[in-house]
Amino acid sequence: MEEKLPYPHRFCDSDMREDQSTDKQLTQSLSRTADRKCVAGFLFASTKMAGGGLVVEGRASVLSFVLGVSVISLPFITSRYTEPGQTLLGSAPGRITLALFVAAVNGVLLLLYRAHLYQVAIRAAFLGFAFGCGLLIGITQSPWRHFGWYICSLSFFHYSEYLITALNNPKSLSLDSFLLNHSVEYTMAAISSWLEFTIEKTIYPELKQITWLSVIGLFMVLFGESLRKSAMLTAGSNFNHIVQNEKSETHTLVTSGVYSWFRHPSYVGWFYWSIGTQVLLCNPVCLIGYTLASWRFFRERVEEEEFSLIHFFGQEYVDYKRNVPTGLPFISGVKVEP
């Protein structure tokens, strides 16, 4: 479950902003000497460098995510062909409609996007589709209802990682920003939780119907997600999923917002989010495993990063460290001699 996150510092990006009138004149000049493809490429680069608004990848992801979420409309479309309370997969018309929907969304994305943008779009659409399916499952009285809540939490987490990066730091934006291919350990942890839920639901279904416990887990998930995204927004353009090991001349220590509450708010958010998913699923085995693995990872990560932060900012960070906790239980960070 290794996470690659930035140090809490801020880049100065004023030199990246370009005057709109200059952009317009330069575009007009290019249009007289280059074909449309060259101009489009220049405009794409200018938009990405300007840092103003959402870059084209971000816009493509939003549209694709919404297309995926629109799966929630299918039960209304198929209601005249299915029995009351029957799910999409529970009837032949529902399964056919679902297959046609998936094919239609993919067809639309193929028409709208090519190459890299299609790769962005198909991932965002998949996450939107998963979110929509989670909603459909979560609002029913099915034994899988709490798993539907979990699917919504997981899919939104991964999509919002990409979207916030597109808003804050488009220069670092890539397919990896979805964190879908985070690590083998992360993937195995997720699969383990799915297997535990399925096995325990089969053997002891009452364990998966403790609604009050799942609600507590859902609130933990919402808290962790909100805190992590607040940390990303507070860090601004300097948030990066790749650890920064060298100090730039423009780096300054960020101590405002959620960074005034915790020294590592994005870690705190992910810690409680990950544990909350297992409380939500009522997975006792994975709850223990997630807690121990996450705590051990963040203990090592915080100490490793704080060595660099002290090297970068010296006494300024030492004073900040003295006044603000990490936010992680029983993790105080690197020890500093008085």
Automatic annotation (TrEMBL):
<feature type="transmembrane region" description="Helical">
    <location>
        <begin position="270"/>
        <end position="293"/>
    </location>
</feature>
<comment type="function">
    <text>Catalyzes the post-translational methylation of isoprenylated C-terminal cysteine residues.</text>
</comment>
<dbReference type="Pfam" id="PF04140">
    <property type="entry name" value="ICMT"/>
</dbReference>
<comment type="similarity">
    <text>Belongs to the class VI-like SAM-binding methyltransferase superfamily. Isoprenylcysteine carboxyl methyltransferase family.</text>
</comment>
<keyword id="KW-0808">Transferase</keyword>
<keyword id="KW-1133">Transmembrane helix</keyword>
<protein>
    <recommendedName>
        <fullName>Protein-S-isoprenylcysteine O-methyltransferase</fullName>
        <ecNumber>2.1.1.100</ecNumber>
    </recommendedName>
</protein>
<feature type="transmembrane region" description="Helical">
    <location>
        <begin position="120"/>
        <end position="141"/>
    </location>
</feature>
<keyword id="KW-0949">S-adenosyl-L-methionine</keyword>
<dbReference type="InterPro" id="IPR025770">
    <property type="entry name" value="PPMT_MeTrfase"/>
</dbReference>
<keyword id="KW-0489">Methyltransferase</keyword>
<keyword id="KW-0472">Membrane</keyword>
<feature type="transmembrane region" description="Helical">
    <location>
        <begin position="96"/>
        <end position="113"/>
    </location>
</feature>
<dbReference type="InterPro" id="IPR007269">
    <property type="entry name" value="ICMT_MeTrfase"/>
</dbReference>
<keyword id="KW-0256">Endoplasmic reticulum</keyword>
<feature type="transmembrane region" description="Helical">
    <location>
        <begin position="58"/>
        <end position="76"/>
    </location>
</feature>
<keyword id="KW-0812">Transmembrane</keyword>
